Amino acid sequence: MNALGIEHEAKFMLGDCRDMEPRLRSLGRLCTPWHFETNTVYDRGDELAASGRLLRLRRAHTETQTSTLTFKEPAPGHEKNGIKSRIEREITVPDPYAMDAILRGLGYAPRLRYEKFRAVWELPQGLVFLDILPFGHFLEIEAEPQSITAIAQAIGLDPGSAMDKSYHSLHRSWRRRQGLAPLDDFVFDEAERHLLTTRLGLLPRPQGEIHAD
Question: Does 121 score more than 90 pLDDT?
Answer without folding.
Answer: yes
